[in-house]
Write a structure and sequence with these properties.
Blueprint: E1 9-11, E2 17-22, E3 35-39, H1 45-68
Antiparallel strand pairs: 1-2, 2-3
Length: 72
């Protein structure tokens, strides 16, 4: 039985897990890419899920700051 990966995790062919999130359309003018894709340097799903949660929280805060204009 295959293990279902948590949201925002993608397993590369090498087995390493990556964090992946699409940048919301209204914020794409502030970024050079349409998505953020970053290696978590582990194949362990629990470790990757913890790190991905931290990344997701930080990005949600950044997106909120950009929307409100409080990001310098």
């Amino acid at each position: 039985m295959a293990i279902r990966l948590p949201s925002h995790l993608h397993r590369a062919r090498s087995g390493i897990l990556h964090f992946r999130i699409a940048i919301p359309p209204d914020l794409r003018i502030h970024f050079k890419t349409r998505e953020i894709y970053h290696s978590l340097r582990t194949a362990n799903v629990r470790e990757a899920a913890t790190t991905a949660h931290v990344f997701l929280y930080a990005l949600k805060q950044l997106f909120s700051q950009i929307r409100t204009g409080s990001y310098v």
